Fold each of these.
Amino acid sequence: MGLELKKISKTFYDEECGEDTAAIHDINLSVENGQFVSVIGPSGCGKTTLLRIIAGLESPTSGEVVINGERPDEPWEKVGYIFQEYALFPWRTVWENVAFGLEIKDMPKKERRDRALEYIRRFGMAGFEDKYPKELSGGMKQRAAIARTLINEPDIILMDEPFGALDYQSRSHMQKFLLELWEQSKKTIVFVTHSIDEAVFLSRRVIGFSNRPGTIQLSMNIALPYPRDILSDAFNRCRKDILTFLGAASK
Protein backbone atom coordinates (compact mmCIF):
# COMPACT_ATOMS: atom_id res chain seq x y z
CA MET A 1 0.00 0.00 0.00
CA GLY A 2 0.99 3.63 -0.33
CA LEU A 3 0.49 6.35 -2.93
CA GLU A 4 -0.24 5.45 -6.54
CA LEU A 5 -0.65 7.88 -9.41
CA LYS A 6 -2.19 6.29 -12.48
CA LYS A 7 -1.93 8.04 -15.84
CA ILE A 8 -2.40 11.50 -14.31
CA SER A 9 -2.72 14.38 -16.78
CA LYS A 10 -3.81 17.96 -16.21
CA THR A 11 -4.76 20.54 -18.83
CA PHE A 12 -5.69 24.15 -18.07
CA TYR A 13 -7.74 26.40 -20.33
CA ASP A 14 -6.02 29.69 -21.10
CA GLU A 15 -8.77 32.30 -21.52
CA GLU A 16 -6.42 34.92 -23.02
CA CYS A 17 -5.36 32.81 -25.98
CA GLY A 18 -8.39 30.53 -26.00
CA GLU A 19 -6.28 27.39 -25.95
CA ASP A 20 -5.65 24.45 -23.65
CA THR A 21 -2.28 24.24 -21.93
CA ALA A 22 -1.02 20.86 -20.76
CA ALA A 23 0.68 21.07 -17.34
CA ILE A 24 1.51 17.40 -16.73
CA HIS A 25 0.98 14.34 -18.91
CA ASP A 26 0.61 10.62 -18.22
CA ILE A 27 2.19 10.54 -14.75
CA ASN A 28 2.56 7.03 -13.37
CA LEU A 29 4.20 6.80 -9.97
CA SER A 30 4.14 4.49 -6.96
CA VAL A 31 5.45 5.66 -3.58
CA GLU A 32 5.74 3.11 -0.79
CA ASN A 33 4.57 3.94 2.70
CA GLY A 34 7.34 5.61 4.67
CA GLN A 35 9.37 6.60 1.61
CA PHE A 36 10.93 10.05 1.20
CA VAL A 37 10.66 11.11 -2.45
CA SER A 38 11.85 14.40 -3.93
CA VAL A 39 10.51 15.81 -7.19
CA ILE A 40 12.74 18.07 -9.28
CA GLY A 41 12.47 19.61 -12.72
CA PRO A 42 12.53 22.87 -14.69
CA SER A 43 10.39 25.80 -13.51
CA GLY A 44 6.81 25.53 -14.75
CA CYS A 45 6.95 21.78 -15.41
CA GLY A 46 3.94 21.00 -13.20
CA LYS A 47 5.48 19.90 -9.89
CA THR A 48 3.12 22.01 -7.77
CA THR A 49 0.17 20.98 -9.93
CA LEU A 50 0.99 17.36 -9.13
CA LEU A 51 1.07 18.03 -5.38
CA ARG A 52 -2.27 19.82 -5.54
CA ILE A 53 -3.80 16.86 -7.36
CA ILE A 54 -2.48 14.42 -4.74
CA ALA A 55 -3.90 16.64 -1.99
CA GLY A 56 -7.30 16.80 -3.68
CA LEU A 57 -7.07 20.56 -4.26
CA GLU A 58 -7.11 20.07 -8.05
CA SER A 59 -8.86 17.45 -10.12
CA PRO A 60 -6.84 15.72 -12.83
CA THR A 61 -8.10 15.99 -16.39
CA SER A 62 -7.54 12.25 -16.62
CA GLY A 63 -6.13 9.51 -14.43
CA GLU A 64 -6.58 8.77 -10.75
CA VAL A 65 -4.91 9.04 -7.35
CA VAL A 66 -5.04 5.98 -5.10
CA ILE A 67 -3.99 6.24 -1.44
CA ASN A 68 -3.68 3.04 0.58
CA GLY A 69 -5.95 1.30 -1.87
CA GLU A 70 -8.64 3.98 -1.84
CA ARG A 71 -9.53 6.65 -4.37
CA PRO A 72 -10.33 9.92 -2.55
CA ASP A 73 -13.17 12.00 -4.00
CA GLU A 74 -12.38 15.22 -2.12
CA PRO A 75 -9.49 16.83 -0.28
CA TRP A 76 -8.01 13.88 1.57
CA GLU A 77 -7.74 14.32 5.33
CA LYS A 78 -4.85 11.85 5.51
CA VAL A 79 -2.71 14.12 3.33
CA GLY A 80 -0.93 17.14 4.82
CA TYR A 81 0.29 20.02 2.64
CA ILE A 82 3.16 22.34 3.64
CA PHE A 83 3.69 25.46 1.55
CA GLN A 84 6.78 27.56 0.91
CA GLU A 85 5.05 30.69 2.26
CA TYR A 86 4.42 29.15 5.73
CA ALA A 87 0.68 29.99 5.38
CA LEU A 88 0.32 30.87 9.06
CA PHE A 89 -2.55 33.08 10.17
CA PRO A 90 -0.95 36.36 11.33
CA TRP A 91 -3.73 37.08 13.86
CA ARG A 92 -3.30 33.73 15.62
CA THR A 93 -0.56 32.82 18.09
CA VAL A 94 1.79 29.90 17.47
CA TRP A 95 -0.28 27.47 19.50
CA GLU A 96 -3.51 28.66 17.87
CA ASN A 97 -1.95 28.13 14.43
CA VAL A 98 -0.66 24.69 15.34
CA ALA A 99 -4.05 23.68 16.75
CA PHE A 100 -6.08 25.04 13.83
CA GLY A 101 -6.87 21.64 12.30
CA LEU A 102 -7.99 20.32 15.67
CA GLU A 103 -10.28 23.33 16.06
CA ILE A 104 -11.86 22.55 12.68
CA LYS A 105 -12.56 19.06 14.06
CA ASP A 106 -14.33 20.63 17.08
CA MET A 107 -11.84 19.34 19.63
CA PRO A 108 -12.36 21.07 23.01
CA LYS A 109 -10.08 24.07 23.53
CA LYS A 110 -8.15 22.69 26.51
CA GLU A 111 -7.45 19.40 24.76
CA ARG A 112 -6.29 21.03 21.53
CA ARG A 113 -4.11 23.52 23.43
CA ASP A 114 -2.49 20.70 25.40
CA ARG A 115 -1.76 18.78 22.21
CA ALA A 116 -0.46 21.89 20.45
CA LEU A 117 1.88 22.68 23.37
CA GLU A 118 3.25 19.14 23.23
CA TYR A 119 4.04 19.52 19.51
CA ILE A 120 5.54 22.95 20.09
CA ARG A 121 7.82 21.46 22.75
CA ARG A 122 8.82 18.54 20.50
CA PHE A 123 9.63 20.98 17.70
CA GLY A 124 11.98 23.02 19.90
CA MET A 125 9.66 26.02 20.17
CA ALA A 126 8.84 25.98 23.90
CA GLY A 127 8.42 29.57 25.08
CA PHE A 128 7.08 30.73 21.70
CA GLU A 129 3.56 29.34 22.04
CA ASP A 130 1.99 32.77 22.63
CA LYS A 131 4.05 34.61 20.02
CA TYR A 132 2.60 35.76 16.70
CA PRO A 133 4.10 34.83 13.30
CA LYS A 134 5.60 38.31 12.84
CA GLU A 135 7.72 37.66 15.95
CA LEU A 136 9.28 34.47 14.54
CA SER A 137 12.24 33.79 12.28
CA GLY A 138 11.68 32.07 8.94
CA GLY A 139 12.86 28.73 10.34
CA MET A 140 10.55 29.02 13.35
CA LYS A 141 7.61 29.85 11.11
CA GLN A 142 8.27 26.74 9.05
CA ARG A 143 8.57 24.60 12.19
CA ALA A 144 5.15 25.90 13.26
CA ALA A 145 3.73 25.12 9.81
CA ILE A 146 5.11 21.57 9.92
CA ALA A 147 3.78 21.08 13.48
CA ARG A 148 0.33 22.28 12.33
CA THR A 149 0.40 19.61 9.61
CA LEU A 150 1.73 16.71 11.70
CA ILE A 151 -0.63 17.29 14.63
CA ASN A 152 -3.44 16.09 12.33
CA GLU A 153 -1.58 12.78 11.87
CA PRO A 154 -1.57 12.57 8.05
CA ASP A 155 -0.30 9.44 6.31
CA ILE A 156 1.31 11.46 3.52
CA ILE A 157 3.06 14.83 3.79
CA LEU A 158 3.38 17.01 0.69
CA MET A 159 6.02 19.75 0.82
CA ASP A 160 6.28 22.42 -1.89
CA GLU A 161 9.68 24.15 -1.72
CA PRO A 162 9.24 24.51 2.06
CA PHE A 163 12.75 25.85 2.70
CA GLY A 164 13.16 27.92 -0.45
CA ALA A 165 12.77 31.27 1.32
CA LEU A 166 15.32 30.49 4.06
CA ASP A 167 18.96 31.54 4.21
CA TYR A 168 21.61 28.82 3.83
CA GLN A 169 22.19 28.22 7.53
CA SER A 170 18.48 28.12 8.40
CA ARG A 171 17.82 25.86 5.43
CA SER A 172 20.54 23.45 6.56
CA HIS A 173 19.10 23.33 10.09
CA MET A 174 15.58 22.69 8.76
CA GLN A 175 16.76 19.91 6.46
CA LYS A 176 18.35 18.10 9.41
CA PHE A 177 15.26 18.76 11.52
CA LEU A 178 13.00 17.30 8.81
CA LEU A 179 15.16 14.18 8.50
CA GLU A 180 14.90 13.60 12.25
CA LEU A 181 11.11 13.94 12.08
CA TRP A 182 10.88 11.58 9.13
CA GLU A 183 13.11 8.95 10.74
CA GLN A 184 11.00 9.10 13.92
CA SER A 185 7.56 9.17 12.28
CA LYS A 186 8.19 7.12 9.10
CA LYS A 187 5.63 9.24 7.29
CA THR A 188 5.50 9.21 3.50
CA ILE A 189 6.93 12.49 2.20
CA VAL A 190 6.71 13.90 -1.34
CA PHE A 191 9.01 16.91 -1.45
CA VAL A 192 9.28 19.42 -4.32
CA THR A 193 12.57 21.27 -4.59
CA HIS A 194 14.75 23.12 -7.10
CA SER A 195 17.90 22.27 -5.12
CA ILE A 196 19.87 19.24 -6.28
CA ASP A 197 21.85 19.15 -3.03
CA GLU A 198 18.63 19.21 -1.00
CA ALA A 199 17.14 16.36 -3.03
CA VAL A 200 20.23 14.17 -2.61
CA PHE A 201 20.67 15.05 1.07
CA LEU A 202 17.08 14.20 2.03
CA SER A 203 15.64 11.62 -0.31
CA ARG A 204 15.53 7.89 -0.73
CA ARG A 205 14.40 8.51 -4.30
CA VAL A 206 14.46 11.42 -6.74
CA ILE A 207 11.84 11.83 -9.46
CA GLY A 208 12.75 14.13 -12.36
CA PHE A 209 10.22 15.95 -14.54
CA SER A 210 10.72 17.03 -18.14
CA ASN A 211 9.90 20.51 -19.35
CA ARG A 212 6.19 21.31 -19.67
CA PRO A 213 4.07 19.33 -20.05
CA GLY A 214 5.77 17.53 -17.20
CA THR A 215 6.40 13.83 -17.65
CA ILE A 216 8.56 11.60 -15.48
CA GLN A 217 11.94 11.19 -17.15
CA LEU A 218 14.06 10.21 -14.14
CA SER A 219 13.56 7.82 -11.22
CA MET A 220 16.77 7.57 -9.23
CA ASN A 221 17.27 5.71 -5.96
CA ILE A 222 19.66 7.38 -3.51
CA ALA A 223 21.25 4.49 -1.64
CA LEU A 224 23.58 6.60 0.51
CA PRO A 225 23.39 6.02 4.29
CA TYR A 226 22.18 8.76 6.64
CA PRO A 227 23.54 11.18 7.73
CA ARG A 228 24.90 12.08 4.31
CA ASP A 229 28.22 13.75 3.65
CA ILE A 230 27.68 16.44 1.03
CA LEU A 231 31.42 16.47 0.26
CA SER A 232 31.75 12.73 -0.39
CA ASP A 233 32.48 11.29 -3.83
CA ALA A 234 29.26 9.24 -3.73
CA PHE A 235 27.18 12.34 -2.98
CA ASN A 236 28.85 14.22 -5.82
CA ARG A 237 28.17 11.39 -8.26
CA CYS A 238 24.45 11.58 -7.44
CA ARG A 239 24.55 15.35 -7.78
CA LYS A 240 26.27 15.10 -11.16
CA ASP A 241 23.74 12.60 -12.51
CA ILE A 242 20.82 14.82 -11.52
CA LEU A 243 22.52 17.95 -12.86
CA THR A 244 23.06 16.19 -16.19
CA PHE A 245 19.39 15.23 -16.29
CA LEU A 246 18.21 18.77 -15.49
CA GLY A 247 20.45 20.21 -18.20
CA ALA A 248 18.80 17.94 -20.76
CA ALA A 249 15.29 18.39 -19.37
CA SER A 250 15.48 22.19 -19.58
CA LYS A 251 16.19 22.21 -23.32
Note: The chain has a mean pLDDT of 91.
Amino acid sequence: MDPLLSSSGEVIGINTAIIQGAQGICFAVASNTAQFVLGEIVRHGRVRRAYIGVAAQTMPLPRRLTARVEIANASGALITGIEPGSPAAISDLRLNDVVVALDGAMVGGVDDLVRMLNAERIARPIELAVLRQGAIVTARMVPSERVSP
Protein backbone atom coordinates (compact mmCIF):
# COMPACT_ATOMS: atom_id res chain seq x y z
CA MET A 1 0.00 0.00 0.00
CA ASP A 2 1.33 3.37 -1.00
CA PRO A 3 0.41 6.80 0.30
CA LEU A 4 -1.84 9.02 -1.80
CA LEU A 5 -0.28 12.48 -1.90
CA SER A 6 -1.73 15.90 -2.60
CA SER A 7 0.05 18.26 -5.02
CA SER A 8 1.76 19.85 -1.99
CA GLY A 9 3.14 16.49 -0.80
CA GLU A 10 0.68 15.90 2.06
CA VAL A 11 -0.55 12.35 2.70
CA ILE A 12 -4.32 12.44 2.10
CA GLY A 13 -4.99 8.73 1.77
CA ILE A 14 -3.70 5.19 1.49
CA ASN A 15 -3.95 3.56 -1.94
CA THR A 16 -5.60 0.17 -1.56
CA ALA A 17 -5.89 -0.92 -5.20
CA ILE A 18 -4.14 0.39 -8.31
CA ILE A 19 -5.13 -0.59 -11.85
CA GLN A 20 -1.90 -0.09 -13.80
CA GLY A 21 -3.45 -0.91 -17.18
CA ALA A 22 -6.10 1.78 -16.74
CA GLN A 23 -3.87 4.87 -16.66
CA GLY A 24 -2.97 4.28 -12.99
CA ILE A 25 -6.52 4.56 -11.62
CA CYS A 26 -6.43 3.84 -7.91
CA PHE A 27 -8.82 3.41 -5.01
CA ALA A 28 -7.85 4.86 -1.67
CA VAL A 29 -8.95 5.09 1.94
CA ALA A 30 -8.90 8.62 3.36
CA SER A 31 -5.98 9.25 5.70
CA ASN A 32 -8.24 10.19 8.62
CA THR A 33 -10.15 6.89 8.21
CA ALA A 34 -6.89 4.93 8.07
CA GLN A 35 -5.63 6.76 11.18
CA PHE A 36 -8.88 5.98 13.06
CA VAL A 37 -8.77 2.29 12.08
CA LEU A 38 -5.10 1.98 13.08
CA GLY A 39 -5.79 3.59 16.46
CA GLU A 40 -8.69 1.22 17.12
CA ILE A 41 -6.61 -1.82 16.17
CA VAL A 42 -3.74 -0.73 18.42
CA ARG A 43 -6.08 -0.02 21.38
CA HIS A 44 -8.57 -2.88 21.07
CA GLY A 45 -7.17 -5.31 18.51
CA ARG A 46 -10.17 -4.56 16.28
CA VAL A 47 -12.45 -1.73 15.19
CA ARG A 48 -15.34 -1.50 17.65
CA ARG A 49 -18.80 -0.46 16.38
CA ALA A 50 -22.18 -0.01 18.06
CA TYR A 51 -24.91 -2.42 16.95
CA ILE A 52 -28.67 -1.83 16.96
CA GLY A 53 -29.75 -4.67 14.64
CA VAL A 54 -31.52 -3.01 11.73
CA ALA A 55 -31.49 -3.21 7.96
CA ALA A 56 -32.11 0.15 6.32
CA GLN A 57 -31.95 2.08 3.09
CA THR A 58 -31.67 5.77 2.33
CA MET A 59 -35.03 7.27 1.43
CA PRO A 60 -35.79 10.74 0.05
CA LEU A 61 -38.41 12.67 2.04
CA PRO A 62 -41.11 14.82 0.44
CA ARG A 63 -40.61 18.53 1.14
CA ARG A 64 -44.22 18.94 2.14
CA LEU A 65 -43.75 16.33 4.90
CA THR A 66 -40.45 17.74 6.19
CA ALA A 67 -41.97 21.24 6.32
CA ARG A 68 -45.00 19.96 8.23
CA VAL A 69 -42.90 18.17 10.89
CA GLU A 70 -40.30 20.98 10.86
CA ILE A 71 -37.12 19.06 10.03
CA ALA A 72 -34.33 20.04 7.63
CA ASN A 73 -33.73 16.53 6.25
CA ALA A 74 -34.04 15.89 2.53
CA SER A 75 -33.75 12.15 3.27
CA GLY A 76 -33.54 9.64 6.11
CA ALA A 77 -32.84 5.97 6.86
CA LEU A 78 -35.89 3.77 6.18
CA ILE A 79 -35.96 0.74 8.51
CA THR A 80 -36.55 -2.31 6.29
CA GLY A 81 -35.65 -5.03 8.79
CA ILE A 82 -35.18 -5.57 12.52
CA GLU A 83 -33.17 -8.53 13.81
CA PRO A 84 -34.90 -10.59 16.51
CA GLY A 85 -33.36 -10.10 19.95
CA SER A 86 -31.43 -7.00 18.86
CA PRO A 87 -31.48 -3.63 20.69
CA ALA A 88 -33.89 -2.34 18.02
CA ALA A 89 -36.22 -5.34 18.50
CA ILE A 90 -36.67 -4.62 22.20
CA SER A 91 -37.16 -0.89 21.60
CA ASP A 92 -40.18 0.88 20.19
CA LEU A 93 -38.61 1.13 16.70
CA ARG A 94 -40.82 -0.34 13.95
CA LEU A 95 -40.50 -1.47 10.35
CA ASN A 96 -41.00 1.42 7.90
CA ASP A 97 -39.93 4.04 10.46
CA VAL A 98 -37.61 6.61 8.89
CA VAL A 99 -34.72 7.61 11.14
CA VAL A 100 -34.11 11.36 10.78
CA ALA A 101 -31.91 12.05 13.85
CA LEU A 102 -29.74 10.23 16.37
CA ASP A 103 -29.26 12.02 19.70
CA GLY A 104 -30.29 15.27 18.04
CA ALA A 105 -27.85 15.00 15.11
CA MET A 106 -29.44 14.83 11.65
CA VAL A 107 -29.43 11.44 9.88
CA GLY A 108 -29.64 11.93 6.13
CA GLY A 109 -29.44 8.23 5.29
CA VAL A 110 -27.85 4.88 6.01
CA ASP A 111 -24.26 6.21 5.73
CA ASP A 112 -24.93 8.79 8.45
CA LEU A 113 -26.54 6.20 10.72
CA VAL A 114 -23.62 3.78 10.33
CA ARG A 115 -21.07 6.56 10.91
CA MET A 116 -22.84 7.70 14.08
CA LEU A 117 -22.97 4.19 15.56
CA ASN A 118 -19.36 4.33 16.69
CA ALA A 119 -17.67 2.75 19.71
CA GLU A 120 -18.65 5.69 21.94
CA ARG A 121 -22.31 4.69 21.68
CA ILE A 122 -21.79 1.07 22.84
CA ALA A 123 -23.84 0.39 26.01
CA ARG A 124 -25.03 4.02 26.18
CA PRO A 125 -28.70 4.95 25.76
CA ILE A 126 -29.50 6.64 22.44
CA GLU A 127 -32.59 8.37 21.08
CA LEU A 128 -33.65 8.05 17.48
CA ALA A 129 -36.08 10.60 16.07
CA VAL A 130 -38.16 8.75 13.51
CA LEU A 131 -40.92 9.64 11.09
CA ARG A 132 -43.86 7.33 11.66
CA GLN A 133 -47.18 7.86 9.90
CA GLY A 134 -46.46 11.55 9.28
CA ALA A 135 -45.28 12.44 12.79
CA ILE A 136 -41.96 12.53 14.63
CA VAL A 137 -41.70 9.96 17.45
CA THR A 138 -38.78 8.93 19.64
CA ALA A 139 -37.33 5.42 19.79
CA ARG A 140 -34.93 4.76 22.67
CA MET A 141 -32.47 1.88 22.89
CA VAL A 142 -29.03 0.86 24.15
CA PRO A 143 -26.69 -0.32 21.38
CA SER A 144 -24.50 -3.33 22.06
CA GLU A 145 -21.07 -4.01 20.58
CA ARG A 146 -21.09 -5.46 17.08
CA VAL A 147 -19.57 -8.94 17.13
CA SER A 148 -17.95 -10.14 13.92
CA PRO A 149 -18.85 -13.68 12.80
Note: The mean pLDDT is 90.
